[in-house]
Specification:
single chain; 157 residues; mainly alpha; 4 helices; 0% strand
Length: 157
């Protein structure tokens, strides 16, 4: 997460906290004034409002956790899918001529390392971008080497 987003998030959290404290103070002052003016009859009917506010707050928290859980599940599914794809491609290297396999297997190891480096330090955006570029270059090199090994014309389709 870039520094400006972290700063903005922190600023928003502090502002929200201060706003809640201000509203609590204001509500307390209004409640004390009502108690002075109306005595024991002042708090009648406030329980319904409390219940509605807490219900809405609970709903908001439930939606937040639900969204976070669905994003986590989607990301986990993408990671599993990519790992399966790399594993399938690794196994299909056995179909290539024996002399082409060692070089391609090393390229696959390098590709896997580059993909892992993409997520190793997510806060370091330049390193992640460089790892993605390296993985893309390796993917092209693997494709070209596989086409050459199979007697293809060497052009990606």
């Amino acid at each position: 997460m870039p520094v400006y987003q972290m700063t903005l998030s922190l600023l928003m959290a502090v502002m929200l906290f201060l706003g809640m404290v201000l509203m609590m103070y204001t509500g307390r002052r209004i409640g004390l004034r009502r108690m002075e003016r109306y005595g024991d009859a002042a708090p009648v009917g406030i329980g319904v409002i409390d219940g509605a506010v807490f219900a809405l707050l609970g709903l908001l928290i439930a939606f937040t956790f639900s969204g976070a859980a669905s994003r986590f599940d989607a990301r986990k599914a993408l990671i599993v899918e990519e790992a399966n794809d790399i594993g399938t491609a690794w196994l299909r290297l056995d179909l290539l001529p024996a002399e082409a396999q060692p070089d391609l297997r090393q390229m696959f190891r390098d590709y896997t390392d580059a993909r892992l480096a993409t997520f190793a330090d997510e806060d370091n955006r330049p390193a992640s971008v460089a790892a993605i570029a390296r993985a893309s270059a390796l993917q092209s090199d693997i494709w070209q080497a596989a086409l050459t090994a199979t007697g293809g014309e060497g052009q990606a389709s």
